[in-house]
Write a structure and sequence with these properties.
The protein is α+β, with helices and mostly antiparallel strands. Helix content is 18%, strand content 9%. The chain has 1 helix and 2 strands; from the N terminus they run H-E-E. It has a two-stranded antiparallel sheet.
């Protein structure tokens, strides 16, 4: 849990394992605006690429 302490405490186990598996220890951000966090989908897909339909 300490390796994924940057995540929301309510983050699911799949999201935590995804970060450890991928070796990414920062929150994922929108590929367009690079400001907003993006939603975690599932272990296989990972995160959405964009924060909204406008990005």
């Amino acid at each position: 849990m300490s390796k994924t302490s940057f995540l929301n405490p309510a983050a699911c186990m799949a999201q935590r394992v995804w970060h450890i598996y991928k070796g990414t220890y920062t929150a994922e951000r929108c590929k367009h605006c690079n400001k907003n966090l993006v939603a975690f989908r599932n272990f296989k897909v990972g995160y959405s690429s964009y924060c909204s339909s406008t990005c």
